[in-house]
Amino acid sequence: xxxxxxxxxxxxxxxxxxERGKRPSDFAPVSQKRKIKGFCPFCPGNEHTAPxxxxxxxxxxxxxxxxxxxLRVVPNKFPALQIHGDLNKRGEGIYDKMNxxxxxxxIIETPDxxxxxxxxxxxxxxxxxWAYYFRITDLKxxxxxxxxxxxxNEGEAAGASIEHTHSQLIALPIVPQLVxxxxxxxxxxxxxxxxxxxxxxxxxELEFEKRIIYQNDAYIVLSPFAxxxxxxxxxxxxxHESRFEPREKSFSLLADALQTTLKKLDAVxxxxxxxxxxxxxxxxxxxxxxxxxxxxxxxxxxxxxGFEWGSGFFINPxxxxxxxxFMREATV
Amino acid sequence: xxxxxxxxxxxxxxxxxxERGKRPSDFAPVSQKRKIKGFCPFCPGNEHTAPxxxxxxxxxxxxxxxxxxxLRVVPNKFPALQIHGDLNKRGEGIYDKMNxxxxxxxIIETPDxxxxxxxxxxxxxxxxxWAYYFRITDLKxxxxxxxxxxxxNEGEAAGASIEHTHSQLIALPIVPQLVxxxxxxxxxxxxxxxxxxxxxxxxxELEFEKRIIYQNDAYIVLSPFAxxxxxxxxxxxxxHESRFEPREKSFSLLADALQTTLKKLDAVxxxxxxxxxxxxxxxxxxxxxxxxxxxxxxxxxxxxxGFEWGSGFFINPxxxxxxxxFMREATV
Lengths: 332, 332
Fold this sequence. Notes:
- Chains A, B: Residues 184-303 form the Galactose-1-phosphate uridyl transferase C-terminal domain.
- Chains A, B: Zn(2+) binds at residues 40, 43, 113, 164.
- Chains A, B: Its EC number is 2.7.7.12.
- Chains A, B: Its cofactor is Zn(2+).
- Chains A, B: Belongs to the galactose-1-phosphate uridylyltransferase type 1 family.
- The structure is a homodimer of 332-residue chains.
- In chain A, 24% of the residues lie in helices and 22% in strands.
- The model of chain A has no long low-confidence stretch (mean pLDDT 94).
- In chain A, β1 and β2 form a beta hairpin.
- Chain A has one domain (3-329): HIT-like (HIT family, subunit A).
- In chain A, α1 crosses α4 (252-269).
- Chain A has a 10-stranded antiparallel β-sheet with strand order 3-4-7-9-8-13-14-12-11-10, with helices on both faces. In chain A, strands 1-2-15 form a 3-stranded mixed β-sheet. In chain A, strands 5-6 form a two-stranded antiparallel ribbon.
- With 332 residues, chain A is an alpha+beta fold.
- The two termini of chain A are 33 Å apart.
- Chains A and B meet through β1, β2, β6, β8 and β9 of A and β1, β2, β6, β8 and β9 of B.
- β6 (95-99) of chain A pairs antiparallel with β1 of chain B, so a sheet runs across the interface.
């Protein structure tokens, strides 16, 4: 029989429709393998087609906005928000609005057009995480901003408009609703038990084992108890950390956890398109006892989210226990 | 400059990215016009391929599960939830779960394979609304159920797996999260002001005019102030009604509002795929002063919802004022 499961953090209910039991091969593959096709604005030599770089990892003898870099962060050429100006918070009758002030940046993860986060050298994955961290740390200094949303759209079906592998970040003068809901819910749990709900989940998952996909000394990768979509996967630090940060001045273990997860997704689901979103504490309450940063990865396997995203109620044809088993057993 | 706008009911923030200003013709059309292609389980003559009908609108001289009907409601052949059994609510460590008990039904809206809600006779649209109402009223008697989620996936890109026009409903032993959030938020507003927030929104929109698409004596159709997606459209009763119900024993005015809206969407966006979801009060608190039932329609215009649905933060390239103007001016 199907099960109704409640995600303890967001409160959303999900039907795990085991009778529909979809295995990896039941999803139409939309392989995201890259090929060089025509002009690419993110490839070396074409630096002039993007706005000037904000930071880059490059040898000291190379000039900004010229080849030689291994990673670049540039402003989005078509930003959803602009960096200059005042917020001018105001009402329109009973509504609330403000100017679209913020930062919208692109992290070009590698000069190699054919690489992806799952195939590039592990050191390059570490650099991507450092780029996230440096940009968050820098944008935090701007008192207009309350949150930096870091995300990745991998593959056209997941919303990537440029093939060359990249992530994005948006610095926001507000805290996104899902993060706010998670904070409130985690705070409530903490008031009741004096423990972080994520820490409790991790302890329990380590005991149950069945939803664990991978772990190293610092990070755990698991299928959440009530996943919205098949093969939804979360990466969390094992010890309590409220904000995204390196572990002992290194991102090597997180890079290992992230790349291993993506390699496993590639192996099980034939290089699927996916989205991931970094969930971390808002700047205002960055260091706290109740919230636990993590990365949520959702492969894009079904044609549409349909009514589900519009109702906050999800039907998932693949149980997280089964997904975790496929992922765990995939050799990469 | 872009604007950040807050939806007063859900609390979500949306960027209205006017610089990206997408007009209707900027969206790649994925026309949902129907053609007869091969066997259709919902066409007259094939009644035996679906489970037995729950209700049907048919002449008295016709037998159940035979042709002659104008509308049928049947159990979903591959239900996400099953009707028989106990909920058996239980924990799994800190998690909450229950058996997948519920109803999952399909409303076959017309025997005409080529028809759609926007093209069928208005009387047939009324019948669809009556079918929703009858089924909700019947399922309410089952004390296991707290909510009936009525929705429609129109077109393959919006998740419809069968071309023949149909809606679905899922009776649930829980209240979906988005509805719960809306209830809580509306309740809070009511405590503060002793007024329904939706009624206030309607009064204000009638004054502003710029986001109104259509109205008749009983219903108003508008672009919400902070739409998640381009051309998101809401239909609400003008007077306070907390639960979905006919007006003076008739659905004629609601059918008029719904069909006019869908015809306008077809005209402006070339028969787009879409999802709609009926938002109504949970059974337990059906008649109340603070919540206002409504229908939310979201055309499926972009390839993916991407990171946006995963973060609760949306970038919408079409302002609701512009969308409303296109919709208002479309002659149907």
